[in-house]
Amino acid sequence: MDKYTKIYLKPGKEDSLRRFHPWIFSGAIKQSGEQPHDGETVEVYTANDEYIATGHYQIGSIAVRVLSFSQRTIDDAFWRERLSIALDVRRRIGVAGNPRNNTYRLVHGEGDNLPGLIIDIYDKTAVMQAHSPGMHFAKDAIATALVEVMDGAVQNVYYKSETTLPYKADIGHENGFIVGGSTDNVAMENGLSFHVDWLKGQKTGFFVDQRENRALLEKYSNGRTVLNMFCYTGGFSFYALRGGARLVHSVDSSSKAVELTEANVELNFPGDTRHKAFAEDAFKFLDNMGKDYDLIILDPPAFAKHRDALRNALQGYKRLNAKALAKIKPGGLLFTFSCSQVVTKENFRNAVFSASAISGRNVRILHQLTQPADHPVNIYHPEGEYLKGLVLYVE
Ligand code: SAH
């Protein structure tokens, strides 16, 4: 077994680890002689010199992200084992090995016992993101294990961590292919095709986490006039078109996003005149529009990235939802989301409650939505639950 640097906890600081929480905060660690390097694999011991976990060390508030609660070497076999388990889960839930769907999240960080690592699959290309220096240094080993585990299904691995690694980590890195280099970028979700811009797009290029919520929207789209606000690549729009919507308007402040949406609609429904896209600010669009829509989607970017932004974020959700609730047609449906991790389900529901009260309309909650099964939440790490949505019926 490799000799890893040992770090020791302060007395009594092992409780959360005994409950398998995968993070160790810097305040729990006894400062001793040997200071590990950023990203190094370390073994963690209690104050009584009892082994408790192995993980990636990081300079910052989360000092260790736990990879294993039993003593083992973090080697190629480790990565293969964890990735095989993750793939097995995706096969069992039917998102992998499905002829109508080749887009899914293979690794969802803590949810797959691989804290700091995200891997999304788009047909034959995997997009990999490291959120910790430890995962960054392991990227080549992980990519090799990934190609092996996927057994021919993945031929390209694109590494995209420029914006996700902590800026303090002084590690030179660039986005780029670790394996392969295909420019073929069309993938499929539930039988619908779309271009993935993993080079410049947000996140890994597509919002894989809305797959099931889009499918639900499709069921409600028949005959409706749909407004897809914050459309990005247009996911909700092409599901609405397939569901039989009378018209679909997609809005995003980014003209690049509007182009992507138009290209994706064209890919699935060439020449379909039911769709129009607008590069405009959401709040302005909602202020200026008429009472034309009976299905509105609000899927904004995270309004709060940190806890100190929570109050303003909740105000933002309230204002945004109030604007949509004021204008949606009677009998309309509002699909409204928050992807801010620091905003709890209760926080979000309260914001939408306040927005409803401002509108004065009768509002029923029809569905409470969350992230799909390929974005699992580790039961010992409830912080992994981030996507919240409500489907409202507005009288
Ligand atoms: N619903 C999308 C994901 C939305 S991501 C999907 O299913 O894929 C959030 C989007 O909001 C981004 O594309 C961003 O460009 C856009 N955006 C951010 N601020 C905005 C604003 N004030 N008005 C309109 N769009 C905005």
Automatic annotation (TrEMBL):
It holds the Pfam family Methyltrans_SAM. It is found in: Cytoplasm. The keyword Ribonucleoprotein does not apply. One of its GO terms (molecular function) is methyltransferase activity. It comes from the Bacteria. GO terms for cellular component: cytoplasm. Keywords: Cytoplasm, Methyltransferase, RNA-binding, rRNA processing, S-adenosyl-L-methionine, Transferase. InterPro entries: PUA, PUA-like_sf, PUA_sf, RlmI-like_PUA, SAM-dep_methyl-trfase, SAM-dependent_MTases_sf. Residues 5-78 form the PUA domain. GO terms for biological process: methylation; rRNA processing. Gene3D superfamilies: PUA domain, RNA methyltransferase domain (HRMD) like, Vaccinia Virus protein VP39. PANTHER family: RIBOSOMAL RNA LARGE SUBUNIT METHYLTRANSFERASE, S-ADENOSYLMETHIONINE-DEPENDENT METHYLTRANSFERASE DOMAIN-CONTAINING PROTEIN. Belongs to the methyltransferase superfamily. RlmI family. This is Class I SAM-dependent rRNA methyltransferase.
